[in-house]
Amino acid sequence: APEPATLVIFGVTGDLAKRKLLPAVFGLWQDGLLGSAFNIVGVGRQDMTDEAFRDFAITALKESKETDAILPGSLEKFRELLYYEFGEFGEDDVYDRVRTELDRAEEEHGGRKNALFYLSTPPSLFEPISNGLGRLGLADESEGWRRIVIEKPFGRDLASARELNDAIHRVWDESQVYRIDHYLGKETVQNLMAIRFGNAIFEPLWNRGYVDHVQITASEDLGLEGRAGYYEEAGVVRDMLQNHLMQLFALTAMEAPAAFDADAIRDEKVKVLRAVKPIPKGRVGSVAVRGQYGAGAMYGEKVPGYRQEPGVKTGSRTPTYVAVKLEVDNWRWQGVPFFLRTGKRLPKKVTEIAVVFKRPPLGIFPGGLERNVLAFRIQPDEGVSLKFSSKTPGQEMVLREVVMDFRYDAFGAQLESPYSRLLLDAMLGDATLFPREDEVDHAWQIVSGLLEAWEAAPGSRTGKTGAPELSNYAAGTWGPDEAEELIGPDRRWRRL
Ligand code: BG6
């Protein structure tokens, strides 16, 4: 278990804290993973007593789908670990009270004043909170370890991400900073590393000699979920591509690290991100497609288009779908394109990484010239499948594609929430699954051209098809037709 510590959650009354963080902390605590000398200080701008906050948190736990089965008496005990402070994040008072909370925790538990500060707030508050903690000496580690967890989005473009990194570093050392990308907390994302580097049969094939291309898909069936305020500003490139998909890409494409430790892994991720050709602002149309969902049907029910969602501007040009082709300039991947796609209101929720191999050099049977595919299903139906050709029964030598399938539920264990894993890692001081400053920077460098081109020239047209760059796709379909052109003509997106 981690040393005695206090978890301080800024923005504790927000959606993320209610739906994900509190359930994750509760689950860890109930499993005995946080030790007994632990408490939580919620911080918000709303005036609330400790008792009111406790009620709020218990209700959140009962309502969240993510809460583990609650053992008898557990909630009552958990309740006693909770405290609340309120104030304006730009003023010193609130940080002063947080400091008093750490003093009290030390008196209660003994030990040092260890603290994990979790910034679960809108991004505009990251810098003021970090500065406030710094002003009151709360980043200083002389009385215990101090770490800061920063939620996404980390910046809104390359320049602002750099400014934010600079601002954070004026207060914290990089070793104290934990930038969250919850995809890295998913079991099956970690399994990608396990399978690549824990087996001998995959690595020899994992390169331009055998791989034709790679497809990374994160499709979501959900629409806006009442998040128009955030999403209108962010759009799909900032919401999913720059972070989650770039992380999946880096883990798929990186070289084997020398050891399974934070810096060895992050060094390799950075190396491959640096090898990616940044998307050229002037040629965006040839390597990327964006779209926005229109009205359509999901699972047989009519749903409104993006522009009809509450809070979205009538003429909004915010993309909800993006597909890109990345080229990696290194020895391993020269000439092997990586196609990434993600969007909202696609037919179903599925995240997968598919490594598509080259065709056999010669077809001596009818059929049988298909490309083999090794697919990592990140969610749902977590698992790994290998598609290859086999003889079909009968007199004739006719081949057909078959699938060998490993399902993660064969382990019989419930998958942990990514937030539990990441929270515990941060408490233990293990930064392996947290993107480092330079990773975030390179991921922004790659997508910057997209944002600049798309945000500078609304309404301009792609040269090739003459279609508007922001194509509509009906909710419940697999995105704009241009995405097929992007990957084609000899390749096609997997039908998932
Ligand atoms: C979040 C995005 O980071 O990831 C959401 O802000 C998206 O828009 C979510 O829905 C997807 O995460 P998951 O774990 O459900 O695949």
UniProtKB/TrEMBL annotation:
Keyword Oxidoreductase among UniProt keywords: yes
Annotated active site: H244
PROSITE patterns given in the database record: G6P_DEHYDROGENASE
Enzyme Commission number(s) of this protein: 1.1.1.49
Catalytic activity: D-glucose 6-phosphate + NADP(+) = 6-phospho-D-glucono-1,5-lactone + NADPH + H(+)
The protein's enzyme class: oxidoreductase
Pathway this chain belongs to: Carbohydrate degradation; pentose phosphate pathway; D-ribulose 5-phosphate from D-glucose 6-phosphate (oxidative stage): step 1/3
Gene3D superfamilies listed in its UniProt record: Dihydrodipicolinate Reductase, domain 2 (3.30.360.10), NAD(P)-binding Rossmann-like Domain (3.40.50.720)
Keywords: Carbohydrate metabolism, Glucose metabolism, NADP, Oxidoreductase
Cited SUPFAM superfamilies: Glyceraldehyde-3-phosphate dehydrogenase-like, C-terminal domain, NAD(P)-binding Rossmann-fold domains
Protein name: Glucose-6-phosphate 1-dehydrogenase
Taxonomic placement: Bacteria, Thermotogati, Deinococcota, Deinococci, Deinococcales
